[in-house]
Design goal:
By secondary structure, the protein is an alpha/beta fold. It is 40% helix and 22% strand. The chain is built from 11 helices and 15 strands. Strand 3, helix 3 and strand 4 form a beta-alpha-beta unit. The chain is globular and about 65 Å long.
């Protein structure tokens, strides 16, 4: 009789169905799965394989909370993943309450938890860090009259507040436009009336992003207007598919170095093979998540309390540089400070190619 070696299990939370951003979820899961496969090919952790137990959050906080309950009952050593900030916040709160360590891969909302906790750590930079860098890019490009087209959301409201607080002392002004109340044509009229030189899209993709971009691009009054998408929507291939050349020249935040090192280059090739397309930074975040968790399991074992206590002591070589966690003022979770941050856009002459516009 062959006895199966019990794996170390990790609960993976990813948006794989609508209204979640399915494309981001697919890239995140690809990175998680690639890293698990490589760990297992190298002998696993202490002679035992890693195993992902995947649950689809569908961008629904309540569904994600139920998944955390289920995964905790199944005995996973830790939780990993999630892309949507509001969902990750719900996951973090539930995981903390149940005593399950959670390594958040991609969500950036500063207030991932209501209070400091040792059980939650995060790879993605806090929103305040990345969006201040984006605001510096706008100022450096000469933009001080900035409009935001926003939908109701804790995440979008937080981003608007960060931009306003950073820009106001430096002579910048942020004008809020309600993307739900205004038609794309009315939005264009408002941009003209407000004398905005930049429009930031704090809205979902493809709707209402595509009709807004199309209307702005077609309006001769706004020929010199910069369109931006700090949350990173243009990173994924569906952006180009839905907008074509109209989607080029729209700067966004990306969490990659200007040049990948040997590990990052190797993983880039492997992710391209797995995805059939260029990997986004979200895929690298997934890979790095498992890299960290495998190191934690090797050095601190599978006890949940031990994993939670390990965050300030673990060092792992990720695809984007050495990963270490620390306490950061105003952020209640253990934070990698900081991943590389770029402001990037798609080249108007070749939308498949990205141009680095600013680094922070």
């Amino acid at each position: 009789m062959i006895t199966r070696i019990q794996p170390h299990t990790i609960g993976a939370l990813v948006p794989l169905s609508r209204p979640g951003w399915v494309e981001a979820g697919r890239h995140l899961l690809a990175g998680l799965e690639l890293a698990v496969g490589e760990v297992n090919e190298a002998g696993g952790v202490a002679g035992r394989p890693l195993e992902l137990v995947v649950r689809d959050t569908a961008a629904d906080p309540r569904r994600a909370e139920a998944a955390v309950d289920e995964l905790a009952e199944l005995g996973v050593a830790a939780l990993a993943g999630e892309y949507h900030s509001v969902v990750a916040r719900a996951v973090a709160a539930r995981a903390d309450a149940l005593g399950v360590p959670f390594l958040c891969s991609s969500a950036v909302l500063d207030a991932l938890t209501d209070h400091p906790t040792d059980r939650v750590a995060r790879l993605a930079p806090a929103q305040s860090h990345g969006w201040r860098i984006y605001a510096d890019f706008l100022l450096g490009a000469g933009h001080t009259r900035i409009a935001v087209a926003a939908e109701p959301s804790v995440y979008w409201a937080s981003g608007t507040r960060i931009l306003r607080d950073h820009l106001a002392p430096r002579g910048g002004t942020v004008v809020e436009l309600d993307a739900r109340a205004l038609t794309p044509e009315a939005l264009c009229d408002a941009l003209v009336a407000q004398r905005a030189t930049a429009l930031l899209l704090l809205v979902g993709h493809p709707d209402p992003t595509v009709p807004i971009v199309t209307s702005v691009r077609d309006d001769p009054r706004l020929a010199d207007l910069l369109i931006g998408a700090p949350a990173g929507q243009p990173e994924l291939p569906s952006w180009e598919t839905s907008l074509g050349k109209a989607g080029a020249g729209i700067p966004f935040l990306r969490y990659l170095p200007e040049r990948l090192g040997p590990l990052g280059a190797r993983v880039d090739t492997a992710l391209r093979d797995r995805l059939g397309e260029a990997p986004s930074f979200v895929a690298f975040e997934g890979y790095d998540t498992i890299t960290v968790l495998a190191e934690v399991l090797r050095s601190h074992g599978t006890d949940r309390a031990g994993i939670a206590a390990s965050w300030p002591h673990v060092t792992a070589e990720g695809t984007r540089g050495p990963i270490r966690f620390s306490r950061t003022p105003g952020i209640g979770v253990r934070q990698w400070t900081w991943p590389p941050v770029q402001v990037v856009d798609r080249d108007p002459t070749d939308p498949d190619r990205f141009r680095v516009r600013h680094t922070g």
